[in-house]
Each structure stands twice: as structure tokens, then as C-alpha cells.
Give the backbone structure.
Amino acid sequence: MGSAVETPARAADCWDLLLQAVDLRPDHRAIVARERTLAYHDLHRETLAIVAGLAEAGVTRGDVVLIVLGNVPEFVSTFLAAQFLRAVAAPINPAWTHEETAVYAKHVGATHAVIADGEAARSLESLGIRVTLAQGPEMSLATWRARGDVDFPRPSECDTDAPALMQPSSGSMGRPKIAVRTGANLVSEAENLARTAGLDADDRFLAVVPLHHCHGLGNCLQASLHVGGTLVLADRFDPHSAVRLIADEGVTVFPGVPFMFGIMAEGSATADLSRMKLCFSAGGPLPKAMYGAFQEKFRVPVRQLYGCTEAGSVTINTADDVDSTCETVGRAIDGVDLRVVDDSMHELPAGEVGEVVFAGPALMSGYLDDDSDSPFRDGYFRSGDLGVMDAARMLTIKGRRKVFIDVGGQKVDPTEIEEVIRKMPEVADVVVVGAPTRFGDEIVRAVVVARTAIEPWQIIEYCRSALSWYKCPKAVDFRSAIPRSPLGKVLRGKL
């Protein structure tokens, strides 16, 4: 792969990355979206307008700002405005229910929110959170943009140890947690990926994975910003639209998740994707058959990337011979110290399965308000993933100590769904598992022991009232008992 174009000086945070891009290529396209296109000088001006608006709304250093937006230009400029103000950006999934959003907002101590949904905004305002609508006649991002150039002072010096980002994570093991990372962590992640993958200013990144997720934020927004490239935004995934966007916009970098590549391979849409230099999958294992189908149809290999919310990208397969290594997630990216260890943290030889651990400058320092066992040991982050390294230090993921369900790249903790279903008086016991689909991801399946008569649709509707759509069961089976070991452990393999 090619060699990356280095930025002239090391940036302290993502705001500095924007300034460097504006200095180097002010007229270069920064964002291409359905409704408009922004050059870097446009993005800079828009971000400053939003800085002024957020400051007027009372945002100051250290405040937590919820960003409840999809893949739209306002997400990018709001995220950068939070960096300018030394606030903490807390992007979340707009598909969350109002209750989920409110619980999360209270957990992270949010004081402000930028949101597109007026009803959800009223829900947050009832908690005392200052809300700004992404669209609207008053105090909206559109209003601030219309002000034109805004004379705003340079932000105060960046504290490299101060939190800049909070993101919900499945954690190393256990219930979802909130990873806290600094601006320096984010810059390191972008630098490391750019050097390893050979990204440069001529690259065009398709952001169809959600920007609120670490995959979209790190491998699309931050990576593009670091090299001064172009971010092509898609507000939803549709296989025909994705293929057309890639061809029409000359996309060269396409980060996706397995089910996207599976649907595109099976779909009827086809195009010349010869300009694509890097197509990679993350969020779950990419089946070999899916790799082959996409390669055969589009003549583009899909490489695997491994990462997590706590550290961003950790490995990527940059091998010349992708066909014979397509089931691996590749080697550690620059700056990452990666190992496979036993329970005593001793590094295992090639060929032996152990826990994947790693360290590096992009790695968070810890979780928010976490009083459980530390995910760190001997300076390494314990991922909870099982893997095996070959003699060339190519990593293959073999599973996970704790099983999460992969719903289109979203990690779903089955215990969260089980807790909701157990609240139903008709339910005596429940276990939630993942059922594989032909696209390489899973659907949520609830196995229920009923106390009194109840229909599957009633359980599904109950979940919809409390959970995001992607967490809700798509199938419900009934059993007379849940299979358990003599020690009471659920035998999920039998379900």
C-alpha cells in the first residue's frame, strides 16, 4: 500500500487537525453530503459559527455535550466545536429510545445536547439539559451558520490529559461501560492508521457506518481529517446507494461491517470500483464465503480490521496476498503493542490461543465511574477477545470470553435484554442468544420459559417500548426449562 502524507506538525486534538487541513488545502472538499458539499474553509467557518452558538448556550471547558445526530455535516462540525471549546463530546445512537438517551445523559453528566428530534429534545430539557436543535427556526445550527464569519478567539491551550470523548462500549468484560478518551488519544489513532494503511489527502472516505460509533468516528471522520481527505457521508445504508456513491464520488476508502459487504455482494447493483484502494470490515468476523463473493463481484478485496471503542483501530490486514490471509485481522497498526497471553499475562508462542491484550498512545486511560475490576493489567488492556498469532504476527480472532450479539456491527449485551423481559409477569425465565444470518451478523433471539400464556409478539412489543430497535428480539422460542450446568451456568450452546 502507499505511504501516508504526514501533517506538518503533530496536532494536539481534532481541532488542530482541522486547522492544519485548512492551512494546507482550504479549497479541498472536506465533506460531501446529500444536501451540500463543504470545502475545508467552509467546514472551518461553520464550526466557528457553532462554537459561538454553543458558547452562547453556556458550553465551557469540561462540559459534556451529547451529540444525537446521524451521518450529517452537523455531526462533524458539532464534534469539532466541542473540541474547540475543550468540552467532552458524547455522541450517541439517534435510534436510542428517549428513556435510553435520558439514562445515558444522566450517567455521563451531560449539560448540553445537540439533537435533531424535537420530541427527544423536550425529554432532555426536562432533565435540565440545554438543547440545541440541528434544524429549527431559533437557536439552531442553521441559525448559527447563517451568521457567516464569526470572530472567535483561539481556544485555550489543550490539556492532553483532559477528556475529549465519551463513548458507550461493551467493555472488556461485562455490561456496557463508557470509555473516556483524550484529544491526544484520537490524534494518535488517526496517525497510526494513516501511516499503516497509507492514507493521504487524495483519499475519499465513505462514511456509511455510523459516526457515533468508534468505527465511523475513528476510521472515517478522524482518519479523513488527519490526512485532509474528503468525507463522503451517507445517512443510511442502502446497497444500491452505497455502490453508486462509491462509483460517482470516486471513493478510495470504504470502512464497513460484514453484513454490508454481504448484502452488496448479493444485490443487483454493480459498478466499476477500481479506484478503491482500501476496503475493510470491522465489528465482527468476515466469513470467507462473503469475502469471496464481494471479491468476485467487485474485484476488490475486503480486508479485516480489529479494534474497540477503548482504543480505536488495533490491527488491520495490509498483506499483499489478501486471498490467503482474508480470515485474519492482520498485524498491529503502528504504535500498538499487541500480544496474545495466557491467564498469567505470559505471551504465548505462535499458534496458541489466548487473550488478546494491547497497549499504545490511542488507548483510553479508563472508564467513567468504573468501580469494577480494572481492564488493565501490567500496562496492557485486556480485550476479553480470544485470538491466535501466526509466525508472521498476523492475528486471527477466535471468539470472546463473554458473548455479545453482533447486530449489523452493533454490539448487544444479551443480559440487558434479559433484564427487560424478566420484568414481564408472564415470564419465569429467559436467555437471549444470537442467531447467525447469511450476512455474517446475527439477530437477537429470546428463549423463554413462560409462567402463564403469552405470545411471541407480546414479548417483542414489550421490548420495543424499552429498547432500541436493534436490541429487540426478532425471534422468540419457548422452552419448558433453560439448560444449565450443575453449577447453574446457562448452556448457551444448547440454545
